[in-house]
Design goal:
By secondary structure, the chain is of the alpha/beta class. Helices cover 15% and strands 18% of the residues. It has helices spanning 6-39, 100-108, 113-122, 130-135, 273-283, 403-406; strands at 43-48, 80-82, 89-91, 138-142, 146-154, 157-165, 170-173, 179-182, 190-191, 199-202, 219-222, 230-235, 241-246, 255-258, 263-264, 286-288, 300-305, 311-312, 317-323. It comes from Streptomyces plumbiresistens.
């Protein structure tokens, strides 16, 4: 009487089994997350808010070197941006957001010699190069929360640390659009080297989390793959006003433009990613990419979204689809005929023949043009491969390998997809004999059905007229012999490629 019904026992067991499975799945999930964290640890980043003084600056924040602005961080396409991206940085009608002349006075003052040496080492220049270096810098305002490697000045040394600068902070950028100096304190800046998606931001020392902060919207800047002459900015107070600022100036030579003016997406299919991003930047549009990071500059562009001809406002993104490239890394790339092969081929390398796995032999005539032509898109793995055979029909190109290796012996003549139809050459062909899909002139009726079983007759200077062959191809008994083609031997294997081969079995 004390035992529960059998159905209740079964229900209890089923419940415990289901609960056990759920707990096991949860533990596996936790272990997986722990394993990921242990393999790719988070990079600790210190938040630096606009207008908040640094604890250990190179120069006093109240010395008038620069002042920040109140700017709401903008949405970005990806966490990695190039320094020439239109609208990446902002400006204003007040050209004195950074006082470069005063910073130079501080760094060249003998009383600040130790600071100057530490400052120069952080930027990988010599102390004597400081004046020339500063003349090439350009003041801008951040429009995005931006990751950098910042530096404090402690005990006579520049101490690096990763930091997140809030949008609105005034900085100086170099000739490739790379953040170089934080204006308000003179701290040198270097590129952030971590993963923008694997950061842990610390808000402390008065740098409270600011309104609009989103960890998924922070950016790091990669140097532009070219030296810039002007930087296209957006006025942070009047977004419809664009500012074209010459590099190395502080605002006195600015030119303005209307950011609302529509710009047509150029036709970029077939260009490299490096070429496409530069062409978009010159148009006033930003290059986007859906993959992680940025592709190699030599990767070939296959499509754009939106397509060519679409009209966008200044700074809007055009997503580029690319075929992979062999050129390593996403650093500055070549500006002349970029090739997806990097060093293996170059822009004038001929396309490999179909089925080839190595380098091509004698280049066909159609490969004389540059491989980087926008009208000849590449497959992404071989420069110029977008136009194989583009100047003639198959078979019009010379053979790409020596005759001794192009047609190995076989019991049946191969059915070639690209037969050699040139019979006027003074040397025997190196490919397979004509197939039934492209026969020579119509042959006479087939010989008697009793073929000889012994060794075939000796080859003479003219093709036999009555000896049959066991090949499925019709015997070339009526073809005019002007160069003693290899197909004249009545043998059961492929031609030896030379008329002097003699009788074979």
């Amino acid at each position: 009487m004390g035992e529960p019904p059998g159905g209740a026992v079964m229900t209890h067991r089923a419940f415990m089994q289901r609960a056990g499975k759920r707990i096991a799945c949860f533990l596996v999930f936790v272990l997986a997350l722990t394993g990921c964290d242990s393999e790719t640890p988070l990079t600790v980043v210190k938040a630096v808010a606009a207008g908040v003084p640094s604890l250990a600056p190179f120069f006093d924040e109240n010395s008038g070197l620069g002042r920040d602005a109140q700017v709401r961080s903008r949405t970005v396409h990806s966490g990695l941006q190039q320094g020439d991206t239109p609208g990446l940085y902002g400006g204003s009608k007040q050209p004195t957001i950074c006082d470069v002349d005063r910073l130079e006075q501080f760094l060249t003052d003998p009383a600040n010699d130790q600071k100057a040496q530490a400052w120069a080492r952080a930027l990988e220049i010599s102390k004597n190069e400081i004046p020339d270096y500063l003349e090439r810098l350009t003041p801008v305002l951040l429009r995005h929360d931006t990751l950098v490697k910042n530096h404090d000045y402690k005990k006579g040394k520049a101490v690096p640390y990763d930091s997140l600068l809030q949008a609105g902070i005034a900085i100086l950028v170099d000739q490739q659009g790379q953040p170089a100096v934080k204006c308000s304190c003179g701290n040198p800046l270097r590129p952030f080297e971590g993963d923008t998606s694997r950061i842990s931001v610390e808000f402390e020392d008065g740098n409270e989390k600011w309104q609009g902060y989103e960890r998924s919207q922070v950016v790091a800047v990669r140097p532009a793959p070219r030296t810039l002459e002007r930087i296209a900015l957006v006025d942070v107070q009047e977004p419809e006003r664009g500012i074209s600022r010459p590099v190395g100036t502080t605002g006195e030579d600015d030119a303005t433009f209307d950011t609302r003016k529509r710009r047509a997406v150029p036709n970029l299919a077939g260009t490299t990613f490096g070429q496409a991003s530069r062409q978009l930047a010159d148009t006033g549009l930003a290059a986007g990419y859906d993959g992680k990071g940025l592709p190699p500059d030599g990767a070939r562009v296959t499509a754009t979204d939106p397509p060519a001809g679409s009209e966008l406002r200044f700074g809007e993104y055009v997503t580029l689809s690319v075929a992979g490239g062999k050129s390593g890394g996403g650093g500055p790339g070549s500006t002349s005929g970029d090739t997806s092969d990097g060093t293996s081929g170059g822009s004038t390398a001929p396309p490999a023949p179909p089925g080839s796995s190595g380098s091509a032999g004698t280049p066909p005539p159609s490969s004389s043009g540059p491989g980087g032509s926008p009208s000849a898109p590449s497959s992404g793995t071989s420069s110029g491969s977008g136009s194989p055979g583009g100047s003639g029909s198959p078979g019009s190109s010379p053979p790409s390998s020596p005759p001794s290796s192009s047609a190995p012996p076989s019991s049946n003549p191969p059915s070639s997809s690209a037969p050699d139809t040139d019979t006027s050459s003074s040397r025997p062909p190196s490919s397979a004999p004509p197939s039934t899909s492209a026969p020579p002139p119509p042959p006479p009726p087939p010989p008697p059905p009793d073929p000889p079983t012994g060794s075939p007759p000796e080859v003479t200077s003219s093709p036999p007229t009555s000896d049959p062959v066991t090949s499925s191809a019709p015997p070339p008994t009526s073809a005019p012999v002007t160069s003693e083609p290899a197909g004249s031997e009545p043998v059961t294997s492929a031609p030896a490629g030379s008329a002097s081969a003699g009788a074979t079995t």
